[in-house]
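From the shared-data thread, chain only:
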Amino acid sequence: MAVDTSGFVPKGNLNTDSGALSASGRKHTIKRIWEFLKSYRPKIFASLCLALVSVLLTLLVPIKIGNAIDLIGTGSSGMYGDLLIAALFAIGVCISQFAMNIINNSITYHTVKDIRNRAIEKLQTLPLSYIDSHPHGDIVSRIVADADQFTDGLLMGFTQAFTGIMTIAGTLMFMLSMNVVITVVVVFVTPLSIFIARFISKHTYDMFKIQGIERGNQTAVIDEMIKNEKTVKAFCMEKDALGRFDEINERLTASSLRAIFFSSLTNPCTRFVNAVCYALVALSGAYFAMGKGGFAAGAITVGTLTVFLSYANQYTKPFNEISSVISELQNSLACAAKVFEILEEESETPQKEDKITDCRGDVAVENVDFSYDPSVELIKGLRILVKSGQRVAIVGPTGCGKTTIINLLMRFYDTDSGRITVDKKDIRDVTRKSLRRSYGMVLQETWLKYGTIMDNLLMARPDATKEEVINAAKLSHAHGFIRRLEKGYDTVIGEEGEELSAGQKQLLCITRVMLNLPPMLILDEATSSIDTRTEMKIQSAFETLMKGRTSFIVAHRLSTTVNADLILVMQKGRIIEMGDHLSLIRKGGFYKSLYMAGMGGDEADGS
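Structure, as tokens:
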């Protein structure tokens, strides 16, 4: 729908404060994520059990290999038995990890599916003012790109955090049972990895937040450029468009490089700590095995030292993985927070359960005040009384509030004060669905979805038969061009019907109204894209359609207002003249100057 946003100041991005999410904000985001995960608790429990099995078998493999090493040279056949058992344990590790990954994938992608579903549902309940005041590309980026980024972090958290924590705990217990001194060496060195990762992640969170914001800005610019490419080319503004994109792209590149650079420091730093730990274990273990430094000779066997070295790797590896997970989770939480911002926006005011039934079409606008921006006054003290079956034309210069009245009648926006009634019922006391079904709308801006011609026409009345659709198309004079298409009514059209001319798209939108036959009509310059000959036919069809129906006609060409029962002449949000065509012409006021300026041409509209 064309929305009159005179005096309206867009808010820009949903949230451009890079430091918006503090520690409490992160906790809130984690809490919201857990709310979505609750329904998958059985799968999470199964994943934990498989992680436990995987870790236990992984820890048993080095013991069996160590035993086999100690048996070398003894001539015992038990060495082969230990190696076989170690191989079976390794196979068990592979199977349990495979099953765990399947479950974790299921949890992750179903959770993100639920979040996206909730986000789309939320968009349906948000007031139109929210959609109008935020870049559409940024909203798309949050639901698509940011949700994908969140998926990556959540999946990494499940696959590595679970097993990592269990590996640390299990390895620690096994090492303590074998040698306390070497275990203490390992325990004192490895926490350095966590401290390093924590220090880096605290500083990278805000960097990832900025990266996400710039990514949303870039998506918004791309969306704008694609939708308006014809205008860009028509005004030879390609260089300017590229300049805008390059500026945002540079900022995104800089923020991405900074975030990635600092987060990538985690891995090499923790690996250095791991290498130090491994060297200390090897050194202290060698002293025990050889009886150096006051230790008794043979305090541990070569096989046991091999087990310790393996455990040192297994013990330090999760620290490295968890530190990587922490860095990735910062990005993931930042992206999740952006999606949750949409979910936490205030929805439309709750609607009452009463419905409009058997609508007659009596409409009253009683002392209504409204503005898109509280600091910029638009409509003040508006009063209109329309009786059933009347045709009301709304005229005036651009920005005077014509389309705003339509937004208020349809309750796309709520009034600031005053009220609007249909059949003496306040429209705030009835369901929006019953109100909007009482109107048929043909707007200056057409909208068609991807699908067949028939799919698009049935949007008005899904239960209509093919014969009813064809009859409506004949009334709107659309049947001729539809029949000439390759597959007629089964022809598939792309997004927004790009394959069709502007006039053909307008005819399809008019056909939808013809099919529905509502008690009230809204025509916002409905024939603006149609040639003069077809317009005459359409006007004739509209004459038939409007008989007995309350009709609101937003008129830019004043030639269309001649037969209106009531003409409302607006200026700066107020009705300055009211009456039929002849009485307003005789009055010699603002309407006459508009009419005489071009008999309804564009010059009249902009005067």
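The longest strand covers residues 363-370.
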